[in-house]
Design brief:
Elements (H helix, E strand, L loop, with lengths): L11 H13 L5 E7 L10 E2 L3 H9 L5 H10 L5 H8 L6 E5 L4 E2 L6 E6 H6 L1 H24 L4 E4 L8 H13 L4 E2 L2 H7 L9 H6 L3 H11 L5 E3 L5 H18 L6 E4 L4 H14 L6 E5 L4 H9 L6 E4 L1 H4 L10 E9 L2 E4 L16 E8 L5 E8 L10 E4 L7 E4 L2 E5 L1 E6 L2 E2 L6 H11 L5 H4 L9 E3 L1 H18 L1
Parallel strand pairs: 6-7, 6-11, 8-9, 9-10, 10-11, 15-21
Antiparallel strand pairs: 1-5, 1-12, 2-4, 3-5, 3-19, 12-13, 14-15, 14-18, 16-17, 19-20
Helix pairs in contact: 2-6, 3-4, 6-7, 6-13, 10-11, 11-12
Bound molecules: adenosine-5'-triphosphate, 1-O-pyrophosphono-5-O-phosphono-alpha-D-ribofuranose and nicotinic acid.
């Protein structure tokens, strides 16, 4: 995926702003933008950050080629030739700090901080949010599914229903970050090193003269990986008995039937009955795979009903994030470099939740040493220090009278440098390592913040300095208006 040319994968207004800055001589001004989201998806309590790898690949290839320049010339007669010449020499020279993929994250925590020339860092907003928002959404959905079936095998089956190819591929990768074990998408397997898995479709059964012949033919071809789809005609009267016949024949050859797949009907009842039939035939090792519009709700219900399902194939509802189809991540300017100093900048809104938090900030996670659990995320100014602080006041940034003190705590920095003056400084991490890292995040949080249904709001607090700066900025703007 390294070779994708996505420079014009941006909104026209970004290029218009670049042009207006260039025309007015402000294009070299250095600014800081932060990417964050305001509301958790799926009415949940958290999200799982993903999308960074694609953002880094995109930034590495960010050049306007001759056809891009020609297209811009055609699209906008106001663009000067000298501007287009400037674009021909464009490279990204900014510096970026980011949360690691797989990190459990919360609303209003800066996930990515981008610093550099406004000319460059304005351009990348659209693509950066596109990648972050989609992949974070899918990784989160996957994590929610993992939560209800932590010890079962989870297969990503969504490609045919995904919103086109990139979503299928990067969605499969995001699903693995959230805890899925394998994908049916072969290209995702090849590109990202994801294990691939597959059974067969109804078409293969319909193509043969009988279900049994289809099963036998399939087992002859792939004797080491036979999972048979048993619901084409009648699951319990035909599919399972035929699968058992093939399973017993494979056993005689010293091989084994790996599984059967249920794809319709009452999956709780059918899996229980199929389990009994397989066990009675001495095929205890045969696994039961289920698919059919599954998500965390159906899987949880099926498990509560005592379904005997070992492996879940999850497609549409995962890859399209069906019940929460977009994450509303935003990219906001928070500081300007003026005479060598970072000056905070704010966006005021009638909606208090949309007022931005100004300043070049560092997000940290406060871990209680006694419990080993996270107390809150804490946003502080880049030049603030927590080393030596013994008693830290945490207060709610909206209802400031709500506060607590923490005394014995560790501090985890959430962001690290991934791009430095235009050079990638973060190597691509193995996907399995990202998945493992994600898994190690879970015990850091009380279950009340992570549970799927009606979770508590995890505290994301501001340091006194950041809060004071915000109030000052609001006051300055209010005074200017009056
Ligand atoms: N025991 C169960 N409890 C709760 N939900 C179930 C149970 N069994 C199946 N489901 C879910 O109910 C839905 C059933 O879908 P639907 O009625 O469209 O048909 P189907 O049985 O899958 O058949 P077909 O695919 O032929 O349309 C699916 O989302 C499935 O995951
Ligand atoms: O249900 P999902 O979570 O999306 O999982 C993927 C679905 O894709 C296949 O169905 P197919 O395209 O053959 O159509 P179907 O819905 O009629 O089974 C498979 O049999 C699953 O049912
Ligand atoms: O391998 C399977 O069973 C599969 C793959 C994609 C979609 N549905 C099922």
């Amino acid at each position: 995926m390294n070779q994708e040319h996505l420079t014009l994968h941006t909104d026209k207004y970004q290029i218009n702003m670049m042009y207006a800055h260039w025309k007015n001589g402000t294009h070299n001004n250095v600014r800081v933008f932060e990417a964050f989201f305001r509301k958790n998806p799926f009415r949940g309590g958290y999200a799982v950050f993903a999308g960074l790898e694609r953002i880094l690949q995109y930034l590495e290839q960010l050049r306007f080629d001759a056809s891009d320049i020609e297209f811009l010339r055609e699209q906008e007669e106001n663009y000067d030739e000298a501007f287009l010449e400037e674009l021909a020499d464009f490279t990204f020279t900014g510096t970026i700090y980011s949360v690691k993929e797989g990190t459990i994250v919360f609303p209003n925590v800066p996930l990515i901080r981008v610093e550099g020339r406004i000319f460059e860092i304005q351009l990348i907003e659209t693509a950066l949010l596109n990648f972050m928002n989609y992949q974070t959404l899918i990784a989160t959905k996957a994590a929610r599914i993992k939560q209800v079936a932590p010890d079962d095998t989870l297969l990503e089956f969504g490609t045919r229903r995904a919103q086109e190819a990139s979503a299928a591929l990067w969605g499969a990768r995001a699903a693995v970050i959230g805890g899925f074990h394998a994908t049916s998408n072969m290209l995702a397997g090849k590109l990202f090193g994801i294990p691939t898995k597959g059974t067969h479709a109804h078409a293969f059964v319909q193509d043969a003269d009988s279900e049994l012949e289809a099963f036998e033919a399939y087992a002859r071809a792939l004797p080491d990986h036979v999972t048979l789809l048993v619901d084409t005609y009648d699951t319990l009267k035909s599919g399972v008995p035929n699968a058992i016949q093939v399973g017993l024949a494979l056993k005689k050859q010293g091989k084994a039937l790996k599984g059967i797949r249920l794809d319709s009907g009452d999956l709780a009842y059918l899996s229980q009955e199929a389990r009994k039939m397989l066990d009675a035939a001495g095929l205890q090792e045969v696994q039961i795979v289920a698919s059919s519009d599954l998500d965390e709700y159906t899987i949880q219900s099926l498990r509560a009903q005592g379904a005997r399902i070992d492996t879940w194939g999850v497609g549409t509802k995962l890859i399209t994030a069906e019940d929460s189809p977009a994450l509303g991540g935003v990219y906001k300017v928070v500081a300007k470099l003026e005479h060598g100093e970072w000056k905070p900048t704010i966006k005021i809104s009638g909606n208090p939740e949309k007022v931005t938090t100004p300043g070049r900030k560092i997000p940290v996670r406060i871990i209680n040493r006694h419990t080993g659990r996270a107390e809150a995320d804490y946003l502080m100014n880049w030049d603030e220090q927590l080393a030596g602080v013994e008693r830290l006041k945490l207060f709610d940034p909206i209802h400031t009278y709500l506060h607590k003190f923490v005394t014995d705590f560790d501090v985890i920095e959430l962001q690290h440098k991934v791009f430095e003056q235009g050079k990638r400084v973060e190597k691509a991490q193995k996907l399995q390592e990202i998945q493992q890292y994600h898994a190690t995040q879970i015990p850091l949080f009380w279950n009340e913040y992570l549970r799927n249904l009606n979770p508590e709001r995890y505290p994301v607090d501001l340091s006194q300095q950041v809060w004071d700066t915000k109030m000052q900025c609001i006051a300055e703007h209010t005074n200017r208006r009056n």
